[in-house]
Amino acid sequence: MSIETPAEKPKATKVKIPILKEEKKEEEKKKEAFVLKPKKSTSAWIYFNSETVAKLKAEQKMEQKAAFGKSAEIWKGLSDVDKEPYSAKAKDDELRYKKQLKELEEKGYFTTAEGGKSSDLYVDPKKKYGEDCMVPKKPLSAYLFYTTANVNKIKEKENCTHSESMKKCGQIWNTLSTDDRKIYDDKHAEDAKRYQNQLVELDKEGFFIMPDGSKSSAHKSKLKKRAKDKKEEKA
User: Is the N end or the C end of the chain the one with fewer CB atoms within 10 Å?
Assistant: First the structure.
Protein backbone atom coordinates (compact mmCIF):
# COMPACT_ATOMS: atom_id res chain seq x y z
CA MET A 1 0.00 0.00 0.00
CA SER A 2 1.48 3.19 -1.12
CA ILE A 3 1.31 6.15 1.16
CA GLU A 4 0.78 9.45 -0.57
CA THR A 5 2.91 12.16 0.79
CA PRO A 6 1.18 15.48 1.04
CA ALA A 7 2.13 17.77 -1.75
CA GLU A 8 4.54 20.40 -0.67
CA LYS A 9 3.06 23.83 -0.45
CA PRO A 10 4.64 26.17 -2.87
CA LYS A 11 7.01 28.49 -1.12
CA ALA A 12 5.77 31.99 -0.92
CA THR A 13 7.93 34.25 -2.94
CA LYS A 14 8.29 37.86 -2.05
CA VAL A 15 7.26 40.08 -4.89
CA LYS A 16 9.28 43.22 -4.93
CA ILE A 17 7.10 46.16 -5.62
CA PRO A 18 9.04 48.80 -7.46
CA ILE A 19 9.39 51.84 -5.26
CA LEU A 20 8.92 55.02 -7.16
CA LYS A 21 11.30 57.82 -6.39
CA GLU A 22 9.76 59.55 -3.43
CA GLU A 23 8.51 62.98 -4.26
CA LYS A 24 9.54 65.84 -2.06
CA LYS A 25 7.09 66.56 0.66
CA GLU A 26 4.85 69.55 0.13
CA GLU A 27 6.36 71.47 3.01
CA GLU A 28 9.89 70.87 1.73
CA LYS A 29 8.89 72.18 -1.65
CA LYS A 30 7.47 75.28 -0.05
CA LYS A 31 10.62 75.83 1.95
CA GLU A 32 12.72 75.94 -1.20
CA ALA A 33 13.99 79.44 -1.79
CA PHE A 34 11.83 81.47 -4.13
CA VAL A 35 13.88 83.63 -6.43
CA LEU A 36 12.28 86.80 -7.70
CA LYS A 37 13.48 87.40 -11.23
CA PRO A 38 13.95 90.77 -12.93
CA LYS A 39 11.10 92.13 -14.99
CA LYS A 40 11.65 91.29 -18.64
CA SER A 41 12.63 94.16 -20.92
CA THR A 42 9.93 96.27 -22.51
CA SER A 43 9.69 96.55 -26.29
CA ALA A 44 9.59 99.80 -28.26
CA TRP A 45 5.98 99.06 -29.22
CA ILE A 46 4.90 98.65 -25.61
CA TYR A 47 6.50 101.98 -24.65
CA PHE A 48 4.72 103.70 -27.54
CA ASN A 49 1.41 101.97 -26.93
CA SER A 50 1.30 102.78 -23.21
CA GLU A 51 1.96 106.45 -23.91
CA THR A 52 -0.41 106.72 -26.88
CA VAL A 53 -3.36 104.84 -25.36
CA ALA A 54 -3.24 107.03 -22.24
CA LYS A 55 -3.12 110.14 -24.43
CA LEU A 56 -6.04 109.03 -26.64
CA LYS A 57 -8.18 108.19 -23.61
CA ALA A 58 -7.44 111.51 -21.94
CA GLU A 59 -7.70 113.81 -24.97
CA GLN A 60 -10.26 112.03 -27.17
CA LYS A 61 -12.17 110.18 -24.43
CA MET A 62 -11.67 106.86 -26.23
CA GLU A 63 -12.46 103.53 -24.65
CA GLN A 64 -9.52 101.20 -23.94
CA LYS A 65 -10.21 98.87 -26.88
CA ALA A 66 -10.67 101.68 -29.40
CA ALA A 67 -7.58 103.52 -28.15
CA PHE A 68 -5.52 100.33 -28.42
CA GLY A 69 -6.64 99.78 -32.02
CA LYS A 70 -5.90 103.39 -32.96
CA SER A 71 -2.48 103.16 -31.31
CA ALA A 72 -1.59 100.08 -33.37
CA GLU A 73 -2.71 101.86 -36.52
CA ILE A 74 -0.52 104.89 -35.75
CA TRP A 75 2.46 102.68 -34.90
CA LYS A 76 2.33 100.92 -38.26
CA GLY A 77 2.49 104.28 -40.03
CA LEU A 78 5.53 105.56 -38.12
CA SER A 79 8.94 105.75 -39.78
CA ASP A 80 12.07 104.32 -38.16
CA VAL A 81 13.03 107.86 -37.22
CA ASP A 82 9.71 108.41 -35.44
CA LYS A 83 10.12 105.10 -33.62
CA GLU A 84 13.67 105.90 -32.50
CA PRO A 85 12.78 107.45 -29.07
CA TYR A 86 10.88 104.29 -28.15
CA SER A 87 13.57 102.01 -29.60
CA ALA A 88 16.15 103.83 -27.46
CA LYS A 89 14.05 103.22 -24.34
CA ALA A 90 13.75 99.56 -25.27
CA LYS A 91 17.54 99.24 -25.68
CA ASP A 92 18.14 100.86 -22.30
CA ASP A 93 15.63 98.53 -20.68
CA GLU A 94 17.25 95.52 -22.35
CA LEU A 95 20.57 96.54 -20.79
CA ARG A 96 18.86 96.93 -17.41
CA TYR A 97 17.36 93.45 -17.70
CA LYS A 98 20.67 91.81 -18.64
CA LYS A 99 22.49 93.65 -15.86
CA GLN A 100 19.94 92.54 -13.24
CA LEU A 101 20.03 88.94 -14.49
CA LYS A 102 23.83 88.89 -14.19
CA GLU A 103 23.68 90.38 -10.71
CA LEU A 104 21.07 87.81 -9.69
CA GLU A 105 23.31 84.95 -10.85
CA GLU A 106 26.32 86.34 -8.99
CA LYS A 107 24.73 87.58 -5.76
CA GLY A 108 21.38 85.82 -5.49
CA TYR A 109 19.52 89.14 -5.77
CA PHE A 110 19.43 92.16 -8.06
CA THR A 111 19.28 95.87 -7.38
CA THR A 112 15.86 97.39 -8.04
CA ALA A 113 15.19 100.72 -9.75
CA GLU A 114 14.76 102.24 -6.28
CA GLY A 115 18.19 100.99 -5.21
CA GLY A 116 16.99 98.22 -2.88
CA LYS A 117 17.62 94.47 -2.97
CA SER A 118 15.12 92.26 -4.80
CA SER A 119 15.39 89.78 -1.92
CA ASP A 120 13.87 92.39 0.40
CA LEU A 121 10.76 92.92 -1.73
CA TYR A 122 7.40 91.53 -0.63
CA VAL A 123 6.18 88.70 -2.85
CA ASP A 124 2.61 87.41 -2.91
CA PRO A 125 2.64 84.01 -1.10
CA LYS A 126 0.45 82.55 -3.85
CA LYS A 127 3.15 83.45 -6.35
CA LYS A 128 5.77 81.83 -4.13
CA TYR A 129 3.94 78.70 -3.08
CA GLY A 130 1.18 78.25 -5.68
CA GLU A 131 -2.42 79.34 -6.13
CA ASP A 132 -3.71 76.75 -3.66
CA CYS A 133 -1.57 78.20 -0.88
CA MET A 134 -3.54 79.14 2.22
CA VAL A 135 -2.72 82.71 3.21
CA PRO A 136 -3.29 84.35 6.60
CA LYS A 137 -6.66 85.96 7.16
CA LYS A 138 -6.35 89.74 7.06
CA PRO A 139 -6.85 91.50 10.40
CA LEU A 140 -10.32 92.73 11.29
CA SER A 141 -10.81 96.43 11.83
CA ALA A 142 -11.88 97.79 15.20
CA TYR A 143 -15.28 98.56 13.68
CA LEU A 144 -15.76 94.95 12.51
CA PHE A 145 -14.87 93.67 15.97
CA TYR A 146 -17.53 96.02 17.34
CA THR A 147 -20.25 94.96 14.89
CA THR A 148 -19.47 91.26 15.37
CA ALA A 149 -19.95 91.66 19.11
CA ASN A 150 -23.07 93.84 18.94
CA VAL A 151 -25.08 93.32 15.75
CA ASN A 152 -27.08 90.35 17.09
CA LYS A 153 -27.65 92.05 20.44
CA ILE A 154 -29.10 95.11 18.71
CA LYS A 155 -31.13 92.90 16.38
CA GLU A 156 -32.78 91.15 19.32
CA LYS A 157 -33.22 94.29 21.38
CA GLU A 158 -34.68 96.39 18.55
CA ASN A 159 -36.49 93.45 16.91
CA CYS A 160 -35.15 94.53 13.53
CA THR A 161 -33.59 92.96 10.45
CA HIS A 162 -29.89 92.25 10.10
CA SER A 163 -29.34 95.12 7.67
CA GLU A 164 -31.17 97.53 10.00
CA SER A 165 -29.07 96.30 12.89
CA MET A 166 -25.87 96.86 10.89
CA LYS A 167 -26.98 100.39 10.09
CA LYS A 168 -27.68 101.01 13.78
CA CYS A 169 -24.21 99.66 14.63
CA GLY A 170 -22.66 102.21 12.31
CA GLN A 171 -24.60 105.04 13.90
CA ILE A 172 -23.63 104.00 17.44
CA TRP A 173 -19.98 103.46 16.44
CA ASN A 174 -19.75 107.03 15.18
CA THR A 175 -20.83 108.32 18.59
CA LEU A 176 -18.44 106.20 20.67
CA SER A 177 -15.65 107.98 22.52
CA THR A 178 -11.98 107.02 22.19
CA ASP A 179 -12.18 105.23 25.54
CA ASP A 180 -15.26 103.26 24.48
CA ARG A 181 -13.54 102.21 21.26
CA LYS A 182 -10.31 101.17 23.00
CA ILE A 183 -11.36 97.58 23.62
CA TYR A 184 -12.00 97.12 19.89
CA ASP A 185 -8.87 99.06 18.88
CA ASP A 186 -6.87 96.72 21.12
CA LYS A 187 -8.45 93.68 19.47
CA HIS A 188 -7.58 95.08 16.06
CA ALA A 189 -3.96 95.70 17.14
CA GLU A 190 -3.70 92.13 18.45
CA ASP A 191 -5.18 90.71 15.26
CA ALA A 192 -2.85 92.84 13.12
CA LYS A 193 0.10 91.42 15.07
CA ARG A 194 -1.22 87.87 14.53
CA TYR A 195 -1.48 88.59 10.79
CA GLN A 196 2.07 89.93 10.53
CA ASN A 197 3.49 87.00 12.50
CA GLN A 198 1.69 84.52 10.27
CA LEU A 199 2.96 86.28 7.14
CA VAL A 200 6.54 86.07 8.45
CA GLU A 201 6.06 82.41 9.34
CA LEU A 202 4.58 81.63 5.92
CA ASP A 203 7.43 83.42 4.18
CA LYS A 204 10.04 81.55 6.23
CA GLU A 205 8.54 78.06 6.55
CA GLY A 206 6.08 77.80 3.69
CA PHE A 207 3.20 77.46 6.18
CA PHE A 208 1.77 79.13 9.29
CA ILE A 209 -0.02 77.76 12.32
CA MET A 210 -3.81 77.99 12.09
CA PRO A 211 -6.06 78.89 15.08
CA ASP A 212 -6.82 75.17 15.57
CA GLY A 213 -3.10 74.37 15.82
CA SER A 214 -2.81 72.74 12.40
CA LYS A 215 -0.40 73.79 9.67
CA SER A 216 -1.82 75.91 6.87
CA SER A 217 -0.05 73.61 4.39
CA ALA A 218 -2.51 70.86 5.41
CA HIS A 219 -5.33 72.96 3.95
CA LYS A 220 -6.06 74.25 0.50
CA SER A 221 -7.24 77.69 -0.45
CA LYS A 222 -11.07 77.75 -0.43
CA LEU A 223 -11.09 79.91 -3.54
CA LYS A 224 -8.98 77.35 -5.37
CA LYS A 225 -11.19 74.49 -4.14
CA ARG A 226 -14.37 76.27 -5.22
CA ALA A 227 -12.96 76.93 -8.67
CA LYS A 228 -11.98 73.25 -8.97
CA ASP A 229 -15.44 72.09 -7.80
CA LYS A 230 -17.18 74.32 -10.36
CA LYS A 231 -14.89 73.01 -13.08
CA GLU A 232 -15.74 69.41 -12.15
CA GLU A 233 -19.47 70.22 -12.12
CA LYS A 234 -19.29 71.54 -15.67
CA ALA A 235 -17.36 68.47 -16.90
Answer: N
The domain segmentation of the chain, as residue ranges, is: 31-121, 142-234
pTM listed for this prediction = 0.53
Per residue, the 3-state secondary structure of the chain, as one string, reads CCCCCCCCCCCCCCCCCCCCCCCCCHHHHHHCCCCCCCCCCCCHHHHHHHHHHHHHHHHHCCCHHHHHHHHHHHHHHCCHHHHHHHHHHHHHHHHHHHHHHHHHHHHCCCECCCCCEHHHCCCCHHHHHCCCCCCCCCCCCHHHHHHHHHHHHHHHHHCCCHHHHHHHHHHHHHHCCHHHHHHHHHHHHHHHHHHHHHHHHHHHHCCCECCCCCEHHHCCCHHHHHHHHHHHHHC
Q: Which is the CATH superfamily of the domain at 31-121?
A: High mobility group box domain (1.10.30.10)
